[in-house]
Amino acid sequence: MFKTVRGMRDLMPIDAERMRHVEQVSRTISKLYGYEEIITPVLESYDLLAAKTSEEIRERMYSFKDLGGRKVALRPEFTASVARLVATKLRNEPKPMRLFSVGSLYRYDEPQYGRFREFWQANYELFGSTRPEADAEILILTNDLLKRLGLQNYRFKIGHTEILRGILNQEGMDEGKQNSVRQLLDKKSWEEALAIARDADVSQNCLTTLERLFETRGEDAFQVLESVKEIVQDYESALAAVENLWKILELVKDSGTQLEVMVEAGFARGLEYYTGMIFEPYVPELDVALGGGGRYDKLIQLFGGESIPAVGVAQGIDRIVLSLKKQGVSPKTAKEKSVVVISMKNESMAKALELSDALRKSGLPVEVAVMGRSISKALADADRRGVAYAVIVGPEELKEEKVVLREMKKSEQRTVEISNLTQEILASST
Ligand code: AMP
């Protein structure tokens, strides 16, 4: 017997519906905020995908040679594909440019709860603005998405890459070592990160600053940022980074968006290309990030384009679905007003098909009974599957342009005029 490949999943109807629901709301959000959808290939050249991702993701790509001998890989993230477009076909588009992409990604991660080898993301990217209102928009949009989905108690872990970079640059630490520090911080290995700094011969003042910084976090954003300012006072660009994060969070707050945050001065994300505010939404029920975002002003340049500032976010659809499930939030299903149309006799079958078509045109989901079962068996089957209404089409009623409408939950039925059928169903309260 064949099975799915390790780390791959079949999504059965309930889960598929949950996934598509999150996808649909994320698409609605893209339209409401002016992000235009683009569809890029799942398969890209290995070199493009490997160019500017983290070492960890690079090692876990599904890569192979195609029959033409090209080294290719399944995309592990959207950003490289979007950057390729922005550096080429979209190069001359006016700014700002807002792009949305949604689809599956592939990483050879160790499968575990919330970690799959095939997963879905909804991705929003805003190109062309260095201003804090662009960062604020990405935070507000993410908050809007999670709120609309009905998620409770979520919080944004927030930091700024340039706080750490500002300190380490001033201390003369090379980019390679800085990346190692970032990777360790991403894994919460603060001691090991400090050890690298110590080995790199940074000043004693720097070590003390880092130690204090890694311990600084809290839910009162402006209080935390006040402390961080004091801690990094000897490092000019680190201070500018704190000011930038302050401005972003102030804009969000003054816009009336209530963002629950956890500001962490030592927060780093694994991806190398971030150059500003970074964040991850999370819920207490799940020990993993629901998404990841931030600013990456130098990425497009790295892909051969001009220097175009950018800020964006990748929402992890699978983990959002898991969190909603844990919190018992279900999408409203189409089943509420679903209808099965059953023909009593062969000669009324064409009419049953015609009626189904008319009901669907009014937006009702309709199935036709196609198994040739008796009425009682067809009704039992409709009941088992939670269909809300049955329309029974029989030659006798048809003579008077009528059918039987049965409300499944109440086990009540009545004869209704065909011309009133849609109205009767739409107006009924089941
Ligand atoms: P990243 O692209 O690594 O910044 O991840 C962004 C978001 O994608 C994460 O916060 C997760 O929600 C989701 N994600 C990343 N890797 C996986 C995975 N292996 N399985 C499920 N979701 C993932």
Percent of residues in helices: 40-55%
The dominant shape is elongated
Radius of gyration: 28 Å
> In this structure, how is the largest beta sheet organized?
9 strands, mixed
Bound chemical compounds: adenosine monophosphate
Mean pLDDT: 94
Q: Which regions contain 5 or more consecutive residues with pLDDT less than 50?
A: none
The count of β-strands is: 17
First and last CA, distance: 43 Å
Counted by DSSP, the helix tally is 17
Widest beta sheet: strand line-up: 1-5-6-12-11-10-7-9-8
What is the subunit organization of this protein? single chain
How would you classify the helix and strand content by structural class? alpha+beta
Per DSSP, what share of the residues sits in E-state strands of 2 or more residues? 15-25%
Brief account:
The chain has 430 residues and is of the alpha+beta class.
Descriptors:
alpha+beta; 5-stranded mixed β-sheet; binds adenosine monophosphate
Structure description:
The protein contains 17 helices and 17 strands. It has 430 residues and is of the alpha+beta class. Strands 1-5-6-12-11-10-7-9-8 form a 9-stranded mixed β-sheet. A hairpin with a 5-residue loop joins strand 3 (63-65) and strand 4 (71-74). Helix 7 runs antiparallel to helix 8 (190-199). It starts with 12 loop residues before the first helix and ends with a helix. The mean pLDDT is 94. It binds adenosine monophosphate (AMP). Adenosine monophosphate binds next to strand 6, strand 11, strand 12 and helix 13.
